[in-house]
Amino acid sequence: MRPTRKEHHAKNDSCPPLAHAPHWALGLWWWATLLLLSLPCSAAVQGQATAAKQEAFAYGDSSSATTATPDSPQPLDTIWSDTKAVFTEGLQIFSAPLRFGGTQWGIAGGVAAGTGLLMLADHEARELFAQKQDSLRNRLSEIGNYYGTLVPGLAVSSGLYAGGLVFDEPSVRRSGRRVFQAMLYAGTITTAAKMLIGRHRPFLNEGQYVFDGPSLKDEYFSLPSGHSTVAFAISSTLAAEIDHPVATVALYSLATLTAASRIYSDRHWLSDTFLGAAIGTACGYGVVHLWDEPASESSSWMILPTGNGLMVSWRGGQ
Question: At the topology level of CATH, where does 40-292 sit?
Answer without folding.
Answer: Vanadium-containing Chloroperoxidase; domain 1 (1.20.144)
